[in-house]
Amino acid sequence: MQGIDSDLEKLQERLIADRKVRALAAVGSYGTDQQWRGSVPTLLSFERGLLSEHSELRAGILHLRQPYEKLESWRDWDTAQAEAPLATLAAARVLYDPTGNLGRIQKLMGGLSETRRALYREELLSKAQERLDAARTALGRGQGIPEQLLALVTARDVALKQLYPALLSHLHVWPEFELRLPHAWRAVAGLRFPKSVYGLERLYAFGGEDEARRCLLATRGLGMVEQERHARQAHQAGYYDGAVRLLRDEAARLHRPDLERWTALSAARRDKLSTLIGIERSPLGPTALKIAQELLEDVREER
After folding, report:
1. Rounded-to-integer distance, Cα 206 and Cα 215, Å
2. Which parts of the chain fold into alpha helices (H)?
3. Which candidate, 168, 174, 177, 176, places its Cα nearest to that of 197?
4. Distance between CA atoms of 279 and 265, rounded to whole angstroms?
5. What is the value of pTM for the model shown?
6. CA gap 225, 247 in Å, rounded
7. Both ends of the chain: CA-CA distance in Å?
8. 174-195 pLDDT, tens per residue?
9. Structural domains in the chain?
């Protein structure tokens, strides 16, 4: 790690010396007591002259770049809530903040009133309900295998992007989306909200080490080299369900066109994607949407 630590330090120094950079922070688990072999050194910067957000990975260091204007606009909670990477900002460890705005954003997030958190949670739940209703409508137009698979994919996506953050808002904490995600939601919310966490688990149909190994083997020939590498790191560290979660979601994201034309795929390709998506283990179609709907109610009722 010495080499990458040296590179990270040099990059930090260069960015702080750059006049265009108006704030810099370290994010993620690298360099903390939560670091593990899969942790990626990650920096977040706000820069003048940048028109849109941008990310780049060089020499093993991930650099997340945001326009300077966001450092100003995200001081307003309504704006930040709508467009900011809240979990990243909340966990950022400030390295350079001459204007103090990054610190103010963090203070704003840390000091949200119960009323504001309730409104934020309700917006997430409303968005989740809209997506689930739309998925039911789409499923009603066709009951073939593609529709069944896409309903499962939507249910998982709603659970991760709307329902999990809404659940954590009861605790006034923000989600992390690292490889260890399933292990994190068990640790953070499992004792307080067992039904909600159980719903998340049902949608992904984890299977421990054996399922993780099957999924890793199934990535071959599907253009998932980078995803397989990260999942293998999780597998080697013992985060088996984290590896499965990553591969299920990434397979759905990268190969959605294959899911839409399922019956036209070769048998070999169907078998690989079936393993990655977890078709034989997971709830499909209306069952997946029903579980997501129950999860929504459990989140709302703090169960």
Report:
1. 11
2. 2-17, 68-73, 77-83, 86-91, 101-110, 114-140, 145-158, 164-169, 181-189, 194-204, 208-218, 225-237, 240-254, 256-260, 267-277, 285-300
3. 168
4. 15
5. 0.94
6. 11
7. 42
8. 988 788 999 999 999 999 999 9
9. 2-110 (3.30.460.10), 114-300 (no CATH)
